[in-house]
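thread from #wetlab-drylab

HS: before we spend reagent money on co-crystallization trials with 3-isopropylmalic acid, can we at least see a predicted complex? here's what I'd submit
DV: go for it
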Amino acid sequence: SRSINLAVIPGDGIGPEVVAQGLKVLGAVLPQDVKLETKEFDFGAKRYHATGETLTDADTDALKRHDAILLGAIGDPSVPSGVLERGFLLKLRFLFDHHVNLRPSRLLPGVPTPLAGQPEIDFVVVREGTEGPYTGNGGTIRKGTPHEVATEVSVNTAFGVERVVRDAFARAQARPRKKLTLVHKNNVLAYAGHLWTDVFNRVAEEFPEVTTDYIHVDAATIYLVTDPARFDVIVTDNLFGDIITDLAAAVSGGIGVAASGNINPSREFPSMFEPVHGSAPDIAGQAKADPTATVLSVALLLRHLGYDAEAARIEDAVSADLAERGENSRTTDEIGDALAGRVAG
Ligand code: IPM
Ligand code: MN
């Protein structure tokens, strides 16, 4: 019989609230014969204050034994900025080689957007997840003096670029429009920009059905606002991807509905699914957080594990719920109950 062995990291702030709803919907959508086992990990600010520790070797060993990871959010104002982010989140992405950071954007009917009219938005950003300026390859000299020099080297390997570009081509090929846009800055970034462009053009030859396009990242921010319909699949580096996916979320319903997957396509290590939003400490504990982004992340998780029909049921439930949502404000729990009810029935 089938089983899912899930590691759960509720994390900080609203993380535990939204994760509880994600698990509720997961439990409701899975067929009877699928055995769901969950194990919770207490990563985040509390653990850090109690022990001074972030991720330990014992943690990573335990996490490795799971099929996937569901994460709420990590980050707290009581800890200096970056410590928890680097110590847990980025460390997991690097250790488990989550090189495909998948961030879909769909503007669903009935969902408000700051854009004029109701543009067609249905694209997915494939953000590289293990390289670029996120590797910590940098340093500083003459620290604290007026002559301090800080470097933050963007690391781009042919291997790393090719595997994520190839993944993006395959995703584009599988979609009706079959279009892939490379977003970079090759007019300025002479070395990395050219590596990305060369690899992109070379891999394109293997995917003759996919229409290709290149846009500089600054121009891409304009098109995401003025003509988001032009995008189908976007592939880009880690930092550009970080920035444009916040913009993509803002135009397609906001971070309340933006889901993401940190994926290791080889399945050598568990992939990790999380809402794009952070821990939002300002609204934590007030039952105000929208769990939809986490629920949609559960759909990405299910699709990654091969439960396509269940993933689609969750996405349909979210579409239906959003279409009827209107102005009325519901609690985190009420939204979770509504979605769980829809996927079950
Ligand atoms: C994200 C976040 C992280 C990132 C931070 C919290 C390290 O902004 O998942 O997009 O920059 O990747
Ligand atoms: Mn981000």
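DV: The two ends are 23 Å apart (CA to CA).
HS: ok that's useful, forwarding to the group
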